[in-house]
Each structure stands twice: as C-alpha cells, then as structure tokens.
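Before going further, learn to read the protein records used in this course. Taken together, the tokens spell out the fold as the letters spell out the chain. A record is reproduced here so that you can trace the correspondence yourselves:

***
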Amino acid sequence: MAGNNSPHLRSLSILLILVIVTLLLSDHAFRYSSQPTTPHFNTQPSSNADNGSNRTSHPLIPLHHRHHIPIKRAVRPEFQCLVAKGKKYWEEAVLPAFAGQSRYPPPDFGTEEEDPLEESGWTEEDELRPSPPEWAEVLEKTEGKVPRSDVHHISLSQYGEFENDGGVQKATEGVYWGWFIPENDMVIMYLTASPTYQLGQGDVAAADIPARLPRMHQLSDLVWLSWEGVAEDPGSLRYYAVQGVKNQVSADLIKSILQARRGTADVPWERRVTFDLNSEEGMALFGCPNGIAVNWLLIHHAVELGRREPRVTIYQKAELGEGGVMMVWDLVPVGKQGSFGDVER
C-alpha cells in the first residue's frame, strides 16, 4: 500500500510546494511594485550603507514612474526614491546649468510682439491685494524690506481654446494662483492645478494628455513669466513658497519628516525645520512633486539667477486646517546666509 501511494504523495507534495511558491511570489510582486495611495515615509536614519547616494546613473524620471528607479527594498523605498530623484535633478541638470553646460535650455517665450500666455489660452489677472497675513512671520525673516500693504496677486487660468501641433484644443482648466512680492524677492503659490492634472481628472486617457497640452503649461515657466512682469530684476527671485501643500506624496513626506524631527506633525513656524541639500530630507523634498518647480526654475534660469544653494523650511499652520502644510524654499546666493535659521543634520 505504502509503495502504491508514494507517487501520489510525491505529486501532492510537489503541487503544494508550487502553490506556496506562487503565493509568495504574488505577495512579493504586490508589496514591491504597487504604489500606495497614501505612502508612509520612514525618515529614521538607515543602518544600510547603501542609502541611495550612489544612484546617479538613471535619466530624469517622472514621479509616477519612480518605482522604476532600482533601489534595495531594505532602504525605505518611497523616501529613498525621492532622495534619488532629487539627487538626479541636482547632479545631472541643476549643477550643469550653473556651469553653463545645461542640456535643458529654457523654453522659447517668443518675441516681444508675441504673447506666449495668450497663444496657450491663458489669461492673467494682476491685482493689488492686502499682503497675506498668514505669511507675515515669514516675510519678516526675508532679506527684503517689509512689503507694502498691497502686493501683487496674480491668477493664471487656462480657460481658453488654443492651438498646438494637433490642431485646436479645448481648455484644460488649469489654474495657478499666488502672491508675487518683489520687495521681498518672493513668490508664494497657494493654488496650483496644472493642465496635466486637470486633464487627468477628466475623461482624457493618460496616453492622450501630452497631445492636449498647450505649449506653455509648466508651473515653473508660468511663474517666471509672471515674475518678469512685476520684478525690476527677475534674477532677484530668492524665495519660493507653497501654501497648503495638497499633493499627497509631498504632504505625506513633509508630515513624516516633521513627526520624525519634532515628535509631531503639528509644527508651528516657531519650531520650523530647515534643511539644505546635504541632508537626505532636503534632497527628498527637492525631488518631491512640490520641489520640481524649484528644480526647473534653477535649470532654466541659471543665467539670470546665478549659482544658488537651496534650503527648504517646512512647518504647519494649524489654523489653516488641511491647507496648513507649508514649504518655503530659500534659494541662497553663494556667499550669503540662509534667512530662516540653521539647517538640521
């Protein structure tokens, strides 16, 4: 009997082993290839010597492809991917631009007779409004003078039809709103819904979005055009801030860093946290979605801005609720001090 059942038992054993291996591989693929909707960023120091600092051989990769950056699973995947992305931009795009060797020339804004905003279906409204009170404590720390009572509030809206290589296109309904304060060399953006994002929220397939975009659609380009319109010297731009960081990846990253450094994510301006790009946190913030506009401002306008040493300050304003996650970039000119305190290591 035992001899007759042996082949049968061996077959069952092999089948059981195959099922277990299949389940393990499926679990592995799910855990390490899927992207969580609300990722948790572990920002505690890593004991692994390979912390991502040597990953500089990959091309600039869009954030939604960040899981394609080869990293070791033991090294905090989401956080380390943003560190790698920030390093990629800094080392392969920003530093060459500072050296006059950029591979990414600025966009063609056209001649003085042409209006690139109008051609791309944008309308710009520039109104003088009261200086935003929620930014008074930050403005006091900048190197500029205290701003006048009224400052430029610029709203850019892409509600007009436009023409691109694919013919006449419908409006994307993209919007970029913010305060532009030349007295303090500062831009503060508080509403940013890009044309790419807006189209993606509609019925346009991801593969079809590039063909539906106007020529001028990147936040950094539109910010620069508006800044040129209000600043006597566009190269004076030093501070770039985001009020109410809403991008989920950026907001989760900021909250996680605040929690790790201060024991709570509810960190007011008085207990703010500042990093430069010599820290993993600073580089991750440089590589997150809300840091990308800073990247491209430095890449495209290195001639006007000169070499800068970026620092980033993060905190929360509890009174603003969900809109209270704050990010402030200080693009420190070489030889000057940062405006918002010492950096953390």
User: Anything to note?
Assistant: Residues 106 and 296 are 9 Å apart (CA to CA). Strands lie at 122-130, 150-158, 162-164, 167-169, 174-181, 186-193, 239-243, 273-276, 308-316, 325-333.
